[in-house]
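Lab notebook page, bench 4
Experiment: in silico fold of construct C2
Operator: M.H.
Input chain length: 151 residues
Purpose: comparison with the prior construct
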Amino acid sequence: MMNAIQQEVRPSAKKDKAKAMALAPEYIQARKPAQRSDKQLKIMLPTMDGLCFEKIKHIAYLEASGNYTALHFTDGRQVLVCKTLGDVEQMLPSRTFVRIHRSHTIHLRHLKKYTRGKGGHVLLQNGVTLTVSSGQREHFLQVLKSYFGGN
């Protein structure tokens, strides 16, 4: 009896598998995350109230707060999103945003000054000073050289 059921199921299962394999490229393409581009103008942010759309160029820095991230803008506004810092970083162009601390990621476009120290400090154009952790210092300096073309 079991063999009869298996025989009936197998042909339809093969057809379903064939259909699934035929549709796989479209499914895989549809499930890929959006490509991050330096030319991307806006970002969609999930907030407590709904969705917020902001220009990337106006983001000064990101600040982690548990499973939330506060985006700080050049005009002084803040938007709290329901995503971790790492998740928000994935949505942004990696060439222009760099993690400087476990709690902070900065937009290099708004960097005004870097002061050396154990890890150091950065001063942003809006007057905010943030600490660079000693663990992130080398990576940060490499990204600075790449972004600004220094030696």
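Observations: The chain is about 30% helix and 30% strand. The first helix runs from residue 2 to 31.
Next step: discuss at group meeting.
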